[in-house]
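Progress narrative, work stream C.
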Amino acid sequence: MSVPDKLQMAKLLDELGVHYIEGGWPGSNPRDEAFFAEAKSLGLTRAKLAAFGSTRRSGINCDQDSNLQALLATGVGCITIFGKSWKLQCTEALRIEPSENLELIFDSVRYLKERVGEVLFDAEHFFDGYADDPDYALAALKAAIEGGADYLVLCETNGGALPHDVAPAVKAARALGRPLGIHTHNDSECAVANAIAAVREGASMVQGTINGVGERCGNANLVSIIPALQLKMGMQCVTPEQLARLRHVARTFDEVVNRTPWMQQPYVGLSAFAHKGGVHVDAVKKNARTYEHIDPVLVGNERRILLSDLSGRANVQLKAAELGVELDQKGSDTMRILNHLKELENRGYQFEGAGASFRLVVDDALRRRPSYFTLKNLEVHVGLGEGHQTHGAQGDTIVRMAIRVGEEEAETEAAGEGPVHAIDRALRSLVDRFYPELNKVRLVDYKVRVVSSGDGTGSVVRVLIQSSDGDEVWGTVGVSPNIIHASWEALVDALDYKLVKDGVQPFVPRSRRKTAAQTTRARNSEAPKR
C-alpha cells in the first residue's frame, strides 16, 4: 500500500470505530516513516495511532538502538514492541541466552514507558512458548509488567494452535493482573476462533486486520470478529451505526489494495446472505431466522435471492419484487416463468450475475417486453494475416450490420479490436440515433465462461456483461456455442434493460406520429359533447 492508501484506510478505520491503528514499523522503511509524518493531520476522532517495532538489540543500550529511536521519532503516544516468549526463539533465532532476552524486554519497555503515554508488549510465540515452558513464557510477561507495559498482547505467531490450546494459556496470563490482548494468525484456519476463545478467557483487546490479510495465511479477520463479539456475545466494540458500515469498509479495502472481494466472506460477502434452494427461499420469506444467523442490515449487507434449477416459486416472486414486478406466488405467470428459467438454466444460462436479463425474461413471460429493434443482418470479418498469428492488430475486425427500428431500416460498418468490440460499436452507432437515452450506457465488464467443454472448440459458452449508465450497474447474459451469438444476446439485453427501466416507448417514425395525432384529434372532434 502506498502512503495515500494507508492514510485513506486509517481514516476509514477511525470512522468504523477501531480503537488502535498500528501504522507500521518506522525503523524498517521510509514509507512507514512518511505515513506517521502525514497521519498527524488526519484528525482521528477515536483511534490511537500506534508505532510498531522490536525490543532493543543484544549488546546495545536503548539510547543507541536505532529501532527504539525511530519509534520515538514518530511522536505518537502509543508504541507496540514485540519480544520473544519462547526459549527456542531465544536460542535459535536471536542466539542469546533466555535470561538475556528477559533483560531486553524489561529494558525496552521501561525505556519507552518513560517517554510515551502507552506501551503495548506483544509476546511473540507466546502459545508455543507456553506449551514448551509455561514458566518462561510467563516470565517474559512479568518482565514487561516490571518495565511498565500497559497491555500484554499474547501472540499466536505460528498460527498452529487450536482454541483449546489458547484458552488455558490466556487464563494463566490473566492471573498476572495486566490487561490482555490477543494476536492470532490463520495458518490452521483458527485465527478468528482463537481470538474469540481468548476474549472468553478475559482478553480485552483483539489485534487483527481488515479481511484477514497478513503474512502467510493471514491474520485474524476483524470483519468477522467485530460482529461475533458484538452481536453474538453482547460485547459492544463499536456503535450500531458504525457496525452497519462494516461491509463498506471491507469492500473499500479490497478496492484500495486491488483485490477481488471474497464472495463467501462471512457477514459481508456477496453470498453471505444469498439463498438459492426453493425450500430455503420459501422459509426465509416467512421468517428470515430460518436460514439467516443475523439480520444482514446490521453489518451493511443485504439478502440476495438467486435463481437456478434449484429455484422454487418463492425465488421467482421475491426476485421479481426486487425488480419492481409484483407476482402471485401461486399464479400461472409465476409457474410459467419458473419453468422457463429452469429450461434456460439447463441450456447453460445463469442469472445470479445477470439480474437485468432476468427482468427481461419476466417481461417476456408476461408478454409485455417492448420490441425496440430487430437484427436484419450481421457480417463479421476478422483479418488474420502474416504477423498476426499470435496477437490481433488494432481495428483488425470489420462488422457490417443492419437493423430494423419500427418501419425504418439502418445499416453501418464499424471496425474494432476483435468481433465483440466491433459489434458493440456498430450496434451503438445505429440504435443511439433512435434512442438517445442509450448515450450514457457503457460496457464496464465482459466475461466468457465455458459451460460445457465436451465439444472442445465447439463448446457452449456463457457471456456475462456488466453495463452502467452512471447511476446503476446491471448484468446481462447470453449463451450459445457461437461466442458471437452469445455476445450479441447479452449486448441487446443490456440496451433493452436500460430502455425498459427508463420507461422508453419503442420508436415511432415522425410520419406515423403525425398520422396518429391527427387520428386522435379527428376522433375527439367526433365525440359527443357532455
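Work stream C, second folded protein:
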Amino acid sequence: MLKILERKITLQLLVFYALFVIPLLLGGLELYFFQYNALQQSAQQADLALAQSIAQNVETQVHNVGQEAMELVHSQAVIQLNRLQMLSLFTVSKQIHPEISQYVICDPSGKVVLNYPAGPTSCGQNFSGPDYFQKVPRGNSYVVSADRIIQSGGSYVVPVATGISDGHNHLIGVMILNLSLAQLNAHLKAVQQQLTANGEVRIWIIDSNGDTIANTVGVSPRSSLLRRIPSLRIALRGKAGNLVAQDEQRGWLYSYVPVSGTKWAVAVGRPVDATFATAISFQHSLIIALVMLLVGASVFWFVMHGWVVAPISRLAQAVAMMRPDQTVKVTASKRLAREKSRQDEIGRLVNAFSTMEEEMHELFRKSDAQSHTRLQTLDAIMRSMYEGVLLESPSGQIVYANQRFTRFVGISAQEMLSDSFQESRLTERLEALMEAPEAYHEALASAERGDGPQVIAFWMRGYYNQFGQLVPSRRHIRMRLFEVRDMTGQLIGRGKIFNDVTQQSEAEQVKKNLLAIVSHELRTPLTSIKGYATSLLETDVELDAATQRDFLQRIVEEEDRMAELVTSLLEMSQLEAGTLKLVPDLYRLDTLIERAVKAAKSDNLPIHIALPAELPVLRVDGRRIEMVLRNILENAQRYAGDGAEVEIAMRYARDQEDEGIFLTIADNGPGLPGDLTERIFERFYQVDSGRRRGSSGVGLGLAICRGFIEAHGGRIWAENRTENGGGAIFTIWLPQRLVHVRGAQNNPFELGRAL
C-alpha cells in the first residue's frame, strides 16, 4: 500500500485532503453531539428548576396551612372548645388565608362538633375513616391527605389535619383545614401565564396514586394522569428527573419534582420542539456548516484535481509512454493539447517535456542509424561464420543464435528468439541429435563450474539441411564455451560456439586413404598398363592378333578404371566444396533405370523391375542420377553374394511432408550390420574395411550417391529388409518439385532451390 501511495501523487493529495477534512468532520460531529446534548441538558435543567420552584411554592402553601392549623390548635379557644371564640378565630384566619376553604373541629371519635363556614359538612358527621384522621399528630405537627381529595361546597379540597390536646397531652379533638384546589389551580395558572411568553407550558400536581390534584390543562381533579401519560409513573417514586412522552400526537418534555412534606409530585410539561428549539437550531446550523464544509472541500478538491493533479497525471502517463523509436510524439496528443497552451508552470513543464521528446527522438534516430549499421555488420559477420553461435543469459534464456546454428538444429531464429519459446525444446533437439547426451551434459556442467575444459567434443547422428530436413549424417562437433562479462566484470551471459570439425577429422583419414589410393588403386592399374604395353613393344616376342587385342582391351579397361577413380575424386571434391553444378533436363524414370542397369554390367545379377504403368517425368541431372543407380546396383552385386537378386520398385507419396517419389532398390543378400547403415555413406568407408584392397573400389560410391541426391533436394538411406529372407534395401526420395507435370510451364532448374 505504501509503495502504491509513493507512486501516485493523486493518492498522496487525497490522503492530505482526508487528513484535513476528516478531523474537521470528526470535530464537527463531536461538537454536534456534545453541544447538542449540552443544550438539551440545559433545557432540561431549566424545566427541572421550574418544576422545583413550583414544588417549593406548593410546599409553602401546604406548609402555611399546616402552620396555621398548629397555631390554631394551641389557642385557648380551640383547647377549651369555645364555640364562639373559635368562630371568631376562624373568621380572622380565613381572611389571612383565603386558600383555606373550611375549618372543621372533630372530637377524638371523629364526630364533627364545629364547621366553619357552614357548608356540606354538618355537625355530627363522622370523619374517623380517612387515613389522615388515623395518622393525625398531637399539636406539634400536621398531616396532609396523601390520596384523598374530597369535594366540599362544590369545589375540590385537600384536608390538612392536626390533633388538639389539653395540658396533659391528651387528645381532645382534631382540627381539619381544607386546602382549596381552586386556589392552587389559580396559582398554577398565574405561573403558566408568566411562562407562556417562552412557549406553551403545562403544570400538573399529582398524588401518590397518579391522580390529579391541580393542573393548568383544565382536567378535573381526581382524574388519573397516568392513563394519559403512563411514563409519568416514574415521578411517583420520590425522585426528580426528566422524560419525553407523547401526548395528543406531540412530543412533550416533562420535568418532575416531588413536593416535600407530601406524597405529591409536580410535573411541568413543555413541547419538545419549543424546549429544544435552541438545540435543534444549533443542530441544523452545524449540519449546514458541515455540509458546506464538505461541499467546499469537494469543490476545492475537484478544481485542484482537474487543474493541477489531472494534468500532471496525464503528463506522467505520456512520459511513461515515451519511446525513442516512436514516430508519433506522445506529448503532441490531444490529452495534453490544453495543457500546452497554458501559461503557468504546468504549461511550461509540458512544453519542456515536448522539447525533450523531440531531442530524444532526434538523438535516437542518429543513434539508431549507427546501431543499425553496426548490427547489420555484426549480423553479416555472424551469418558468414562457418561456426554456429549461441548466446544465453545467465539464467539460460536464449539471447541470440546465428543462422548456422539455427539451421543445424532445425529451429528458425524467429521461433527460437520468440518470448513463447521454451529453452527445453532446444535441449531436447540437441539430445535427440547427439550420440551421447549424458556425457555432453556432464562435460558442460564441469566447464560451467570451471573445473573442466572449455572445449567439448562430441558426435551427432545428423543435422538439418537448408530445407529443414533431417540428414542422418554422422558429424563431429567441437563446442567451445565462453563467458560474457561487462566492464565491471559482472557476468551477463554465456556463449557457445559449435564448430563442425567433421571435415577436419576426416582430413587425416582422407590423407591415409589417398595414400592407399595412390599406392594401390592407381599404382595397380598403372602397373598393369605398363606390363601390357611393354609386352606389346617387345620385338623378340611374336604375339598373335587375338593376344594383342586382349592386351589392348586390358589397357583400356585399366585406363577406364583410373578415369572413373579420378572422376569420383573430382565429384567428391565438388560436393565438399559446394561447387557441384547440376545440368537438369526431362528424363523418364524407366529410361534412367535401364541405362543404370546396362552400365552396371550386371548380367550375372538378376534384376526385377516393378514400376507402375504411369511413370513420372523427372527434371533432374540424368547423368548423376544414373550414376547413383549404377553405384547402388554395383554395390549390391559386390556384397550381396552369389545367387542374389535385386528388386527395383517405385511408389508415389502424396503426404504433405513427404510428397514425392520413393524409389527402392533391394537385394536378398546378407544385409548390413545394424550400426553401419549410416557409416556406409561416409567417404572411403567400406563394410569389409579389414580386408586387403582389391579392385572392388575405394569407398566413394555411396558417399557420392548421397551428395548427388541431396544436391537435388532429396534423401537417400539404407536399412535391412525384414521380409523375403532379409537383405539390404536402399531408398531414394525425390521431392515433388522435381516431377514434371504435363501442360505446366517448364521453369528452369535453379541451383539455389536445390541447395
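The CA atoms of residues 134 and 210 lie 22 Å apart. No further action is required on this item.
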